[in-house]
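Whether sequence alone determines local backbone shape is best considered at the level of individual chains. Part of our work consisted of pairing the sequence of a single chain with a tokenised description of its backbone. This step matters because it turns folding into a mapping between discrete strings. For completeness, the protein is quoted in full, as a sequence line and a line of structure tokens:

_____
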Amino acid sequence: MPYNISMRRAIVRSDSPPVRLRKRGDVGLVTIANPPVNALSAAVRRGLLNALALAEEDAKIRAAVLTSSGGKAFVAGADISEFGSPPVAPSLPEVVAAMDAFSKPLVAAIDGVAMGGGLEIALACHCRVASKNARFGFPEVNLGLIPGAGGTQRLPRLCGIGRALEIIAGGQSFGAARAMEIGIVDEVAANGAAAVKTAFARAKRLAAEKKPPRRVSGLRIKESAASAARIAEEYSERLKKQKPGLLAPLCCARAAGGAALPFAEGVRHERALFLQCMRSQQRKALVHIFFASRNAAKAFVPAKGGEIVSVAVVGGGTMGAGIVVCLADAGLPAILLEADADALAKGLNRARAVYEHRRQSGRISESEMRQRLRLITGAKDYGGIGGADLIIEAVPENMDLKKRVFAELDRRCKPGAILASNTSSLGIGEIAAATKRRGLVAGMHFFAPAQRMKLLEIVRGKETAPKTLSVIARLAKQIGKTPVLAGDSPGFIGNRLYAPYGREAEFLLEEGATPAQVDSAMRDFGMAMGPFRARDLSGIDNGRNIRLRDWANLPAHYPRPRVLEKLFQAGRLGQKNGAGYYRYPDGKTPVNDPKTLALIKQASAERGIHRQKPSARQIRERCLYALINEGAKVLSEGVARCAADIDAVYVLGYGFPARRGGPMFWADSVGAAFILERVKQFHKECGEWWKPAPLLQQLAKANGKFAEV
């Protein structure tokens, strides 16, 4: 039975402000106006139903055009303020069904982004015209969901199962030209105004033809039912390898594979899968990380002025070169300083190599590469960077060296310039003390590779001015980073928590594990990389130097793992020299090495340990509960503003699985009481490192959660 739009008339108001219906001759113009991104709030959904009902009943309206005001977004998707709240009628599937059932031609005029629910309402229209600036996509999979208003059924009917699977399960956006090529839109116009004009012309023409609307729901997919099932199954197998452990991508494939069914049956199948995802812990975790990343910026008090026009980077190593690439990508002039001519040439060549790789892979054009490289210049003395608004120091992790650099920057750079350190663990307050502008000194801890990683830890020294932090946070957004505020404690948030994680992993080696067993257990949990593969990548020498500094005043009764030191003494520095915890015969692929195992067994014998292979669960508990116990200390000390900030740091910067929501969110799902019992047991078995954090004890006693702190 067709959806009867007039049945909705009794429950909608005629004055819904986010949606307007105006008549232009015999065509009704339905405009969504819900700034800033025309999100599909309950008021918008009610307004759409109301406008469609009025247009349906008005005999003088022979067709309708659906558009939006604002230009930046046709409809950006669901209203995120409704996430986690009880559903409010009407639902999006009801609205989409009403659009599909509209008896007169309904043409979408799309300008800006049409994402998620926005694309679903566009697909429910009978014809689509897009501006050349329009962008499309189904990002729901990134939040642990699938399109739930017919998107998985309509899209395959327009572009085929294979392409639809790439779009729905991939979660990536694409432009109007691509949408036209694969059949999602019927025409592309020069701009938003032209799209509306073209949509009106199409609506009039379709009305004049006096034919039933061409509903996407009435189309058949090109593939047979057997072929659609086979394609979906093959794609599911690929997803299991590419995105292990994730539920939503598999549900996307299953839903789209049902497009061979009659439309109503396919929609019911989609809805069941949507609700399965909605109820899942993964969806809750992914939504948590979405909000954690978004809300981290609220720690920075907005301030006027202090615009960053040019930036200098001191140090042309891998990190320094990556930072100048970040800046050039954002259109900012970047000066790379190295006193030695050869070192400067190598640094500039590192930046060029990044762009050359992108050009060869087709991600940027030759002209784009040249344009960005023109923004990167070199300097061999401090006089060449004196006019920069921001100077980022990226020299090796040595406090004396950094203090000398900052003292010189303070003397040579213009008044008001911000001085930032890319240190991963050294005290910002101590570095700032080498200057006379302590309020203008802060930490900017980029994560390697800087040009790809989204996280930027912004470290607040004791005397750092709020405006300094605000200006850096604004720049972070400009260069595509997620800023997270951290207190000035050794290791800040990320590396402070990583230290006990890596420490316990190394103790496990001495007790009977191999590097491959530990790395495998953590990858199976969902970590992007195991701790020993990560250590090899960052450098055994770097890890050792940080450890020596952090443990310089460690009491004698704290046990110390020995494997890292043995590897260093043996000259095994990690991937960069071909041998660390693993061997790297081809320079990049890790291979188990008997020499490493011999060094591990030697460390075991020195500590009098009878080696026994631990289970995967024992490995995960030792590594993760050590990290969480430290996280509780970081929270109580105010180094992290809230548990969600720790989660954002670990998901964005350390490869913690987003589907688990970050370490503190995951800990809340396990329960503080259970974790405390295990921590107490490890305290007895493994020594003082495992002294339970007071906050963990408080939460366990009160049945509380880290999210509430």
Q: What stands out?
A: Residues 1-16 have pLDDT under 50 and may be disordered. The two ends are 52 Å apart (CA to CA). The chain has three domains: 1-134+185-219, 310-488, 495-708.
